Amino acid sequence: MTSQPTISVSGAQPIARKAWVMLAMLFAFMLVNFASKTVMGLSAVPIMHELGLSHTEFGTLSASFFYLFALSALIIGFVVNKVRTTPVLLLMVAIWAVCQLIAVAPLGAAALMASRVALGAAEGPAFPVGIHAIFKWFPDSRRALPAAVISQGSSFGVVVALPALNALLLAFSWHWAFGAVGIAAIVWALVWFVVAQEGPIGDEHGAEETPSARIPYTRLLFNRTMLSAWLCAFGAYWGVALLVSWFTPYLTEGLGFSQFAAGWLSTVPWGAAIVVAVWGGWLSERLAARGVSSRVCRGIFGGGMVAFGGVLLLLLPFIPSHALEFVVLVAGLSMGSVIYAMQTAIIAELTPVEQRGGLLAIGTAIWSLAGVVAPVVMGKLIDTNGDPHHGYQLGFVAFGAVSLVAGLIGMVFMQPETTRRHLRAGR
Question: CATH code for 16-425?
Answer without folding.
Answer: 1.20.1250.20
